[in-house]
Amino acid sequence: MEQSEVTSKSLGLRVSKVMFIGLKALVPVMGTIWILYIVYRSLLGVGDMITDAVIKLWNPSTEPEQLLERVPALGLVHFLLPLCILLVLGLIVRNRVGSAILKGIENVATRLPLAGFVYKSLVQFVAAIDELGKDRQFKSVVYVEYPSPGCRLIGFVTSESTLVEDGNEVTSVFIPTSPNPLTGFLLLIDNDKVQPSSMTVEQASKMVLSAGLVAPV
Fold first, then answer.
1. pTM reported for the whole predicted model
2. Structural domain boundaries in the chain
């Protein structure tokens, strides 16, 4: 009886572990789809307002739903409207006028008590995600022993140079902060004090961004 209970518990534990593995694989995919769906639906709502306004100006007596049923091609246009809106927004933000407008919105949003914190956090998060994988910015990943022996900071090598004052060969290392790798400080370290790492820039960035929860494999 005891042996069967142990076997059933072991089987249940194995099944739970397999289910958890499946959950870990599913959550990022479903989370991404959910976020994209919310963004798409929001942009589709804006597209609906634009479509309704255009139809009302063109033929006030025609209902938008009736026109979409009569002209099938308009259904495709309606479906692609969110993508067109994103394209237009991207083109606007890229020029000086759009960039100035965006900065004005950011200045107003960041001054709001609660919304400002949420807005700044989202901006930093999106910027951090955007920077992941851009290996061209940094040459390699290294360790810097700090604040005591046996402790290491993750750093990104930006360049190597010679100090004018004493002629020492030094390495410029950017030390990112966690969980936002966009901020940090720059160190000029003697070459013999730099410890090389086998991690790639992308692996190290993910580790810093996740505060160590995502370890390199």
1. 0.46
2. 1-94, 135-209
